[in-house]
């Protein structure tokens, strides 16, 4: 009788453990997918930031050139 009960408990534990592992694997897979998506989002944001940084550098260079032209115009009007 005790032997049958022991086999039943072990069998039930194995069955429940198998279900728990499936849920765990599903959870891990979902988290992995989320991490992959976040990694892609970070890459996209980095690319956008690099492009914006280049645009800002170009704008600063243009502003410096415009200021230099204005300075040159101002010096030609001195008495």
Automatic annotation (TrEMBL):
Q: Which PROSITE patterns would you find in this protein's record?
A: PROKAR_LIPOPROTEIN
- Which residue positions does the secretion signal occupy? 1-22
Question: Which residues bear S-diacylglycerol cysteine-type lipidation?
Answer: 19
The sequence repeat units are at: 32-42
Q: How does this chain sit within the bilayer?
A: Lipid-anchor; Peptidoglycan-anchor
Gene Ontology CC, one term: cell outer membrane
Q: Where is the lipid attached (N-palmitoyl cysteine)?
A: 19
UniProt record, GO biological process: lipid modification; periplasmic space organization
Which positions bear N6-murein peptidoglycan lysine?
79
| Short name of one Pfam family | LPP
- Coiled coil located at which positions? 21-76
**Which keywords does the record carry?**
Cell outer membrane, Cell wall, Coiled coil, Lipoprotein, Membrane, Palmitate, Peptidoglycan-anchor, Repeat, Secreted, Signal
UniProt cross-references to InterPro entries, sorted A to Z: Lipoprotein_leucine-zipper_dom, MOM_Lpp
Gene Ontology molecular function terms on file: lipid binding; peptidoglycan binding
Q: Where in the cell is it found?
A: Cell outer membrane; Secreted, Cell wall
| Ranges for domain Lipoprotein leucine-zipper | 28-79
Quaternary assembly: Homotrimer.
Q: Please describe what this protein does.
A: A highly abundant outer membrane lipoprotein that controls the distance between the inner and outer membranes. The only protein known to be covalently linked to the peptidoglycan network (PGN). Also non-covalently binds the PGN. The link between the cell outer membrane and PGN contributes to maintenance of the structural and functional integrity of the cell envelope, and maintains the correct distance between the PGN and the outer membrane.
- PANTHER family annotated for this entry? MAJOR OUTER MEMBRANE LIPOPROTEIN LPP, MAJOR OUTER MEMBRANE PROLIPOPROTEIN LPP
As for family, the record states: Belongs to the Lpp family.
Name of the protein this chain belongs to:
Major outer membrane lipoprotein Lpp
As recorded in Swiss-Prot or TrEMBL, the protein's gene is named lpp
């Amino acid at each position: 009788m005790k032997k049958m009960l022991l086999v039943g408990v072990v069998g039930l534990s194995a069955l429940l453990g198998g279900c728990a592992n499936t849920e765990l694997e599903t959870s891990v897979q979902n988290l992995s997918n989320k991490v992959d998506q976040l990694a892609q989002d970070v890459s996209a944001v980095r690319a956008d930031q690099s492009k914006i940084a280049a645009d800002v550098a170009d704008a600063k260079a243009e502003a410096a050139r415009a200021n230099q032209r204005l300075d040159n115009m101002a010096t030609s009007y001195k008495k």
